[in-house]
Amino acid sequence: MEKQMDHKNFYYPPGGILIWIIIALELITFMGGLVAFAVYRNNNIALVQESQHHLSALIGTINTAILITGGYFMAVGIKKIKIGHTDDAAKMILYAIITGLMFLALKGYEYYDKIIDGIGMSTNTFFSFYWLITGFHFIHVTVAILILSALYIGIRRNKYSKDDFFDVETGGAFWHLCDLIWILVFPIFYLL
Amino acid sequence: MMIYPMFKPKQITMKKKNILLIIWILLLVLTAVEYTFSEVFRYSKIAFFGIMLASFIKYIGVAFQFLELKNAHPFWKSLSVIIVLLFIIVITILYV
Known about the structure:
- The complex is a heterodimer.
- Chain A has helices at residues 17-43, 45-52, 57-82, 86-116, 125-156, 166-191.
- Chain A is an all-alpha fold.
- The longest helix of chain A is centred in the C-terminal third of the chain and has 32 residues, at 125-156.
- Chain A is elongated, with a radius of gyration of 18 Å.
- By secondary structure, chain B is mainly α.
- Chain B has one domain (14-95).
- Helices cover 80% and strands 0% of the residues of chain B.
- In chain B, helix 1 runs antiparallel to helix 2 (45-66) and helix 2 runs antiparallel to helix 3 (74-95).
- Chain B is flat and about 40 Å long.
- Chain B starts with 7 loop residues before the first helix and ends with a helix.
- At the A-B interface, helix 1, helix 3 and helix 6 of A face helix 1, helix 2 and helix 3 of B.
């Protein structure tokens, strides 16, 4: 039976209050960066639109789908561990790790493609924002993969169970933070 | 009143699993819609509002269902929604 934590309590949101403070601060930071980019874009629309032609909206879309799929696996994994299906939970977290690696691989290809074309941080301000914001997100996904890997090993070693899954929930919250950030970054750089 | 404890948890679990599956499919569809809007109505107001609406729904879907914000204290729910709404308002002012 699913163990219920009182998430309605202010101090116990899913994953714990500390990860939620981090989530709020991270979202505000990334949103600040995106708003700064939007202000820059407002004054340099032609240059931004020309620069956007160097980005592949299709690759961005595929990467979004990959990240969302990873989020789904993580959410199912947490449900599984809560009902005591630890093997299934480990499997789902492993799938989430694989999707994360796929995201990094595709993003890495995109970065490689830009570097080959001679596009770097100093090319113009659009690409300074692009490299900084997507680069920070890349680092977040890398850290999230490391966290999920530690959780996967922990579940396999019976460290976590239906009676002790708080760390898994917290790690999952960080993983979903990467989803939330990308959901906002993707349209701003690739679509609009 | 008769209670069947052995059945109830399984029913709840199946329902939750189905909700997650539906949300996942919805998020993928919205991502495809965003891409289509971007390609078909490039740099138009229709594209802007369509993409921003899709992004907002995706954000709410991930936060409330995947991250289980739906079970959290109203403060955390409100904070998440207010932050993203403020962001969308500012972006709309700057873009449109």
